[in-house]
Amino acid sequence: MLPVFCYNKLMGRKGFTLIEMLIVISLIGILVVILIPQYKYSVLRAKEAVLKENLFQIRDAINKYYADKKKYPAGLGDLVSARYLREIPYDPISRAPQWQTIMAEPLEGEEFDPDVLNGIIDVKSLSRAKALDGTIYADW
User: 46: exposed, middle or buried (C-beta count within 10 Å: 0-12, 13-18, 19+)?
Assistant: First the structure.
């Protein structure tokens, strides 16, 4: 027995039958149902990769600033004005160039030196959402 498509061509008929159209539409629907969640996860994985890279770049700039000037930057704007960063990177999760800054504090028994310890030693994301691995972005 010939498939319906071949039968239509042999008999000189043009077009597709209703069954052929339903099969094609069903296959397309199945593919869409499978691919949409994969697309959403790939977008989220890309945002997480950008967040990790931005955090790395800011932390690296803070370390270089400290190594050169022997003090921490007072704000992220200092990293830009001193040309350690071109601009303050965006947080792709919260979609803003705002970061939670962690200020330097003296250790116990250490003298407080406001010139050295009055600055940012670390940055974290402001987002309280969970990452794909189950951790919170603000803990990265």
Answer: exposed
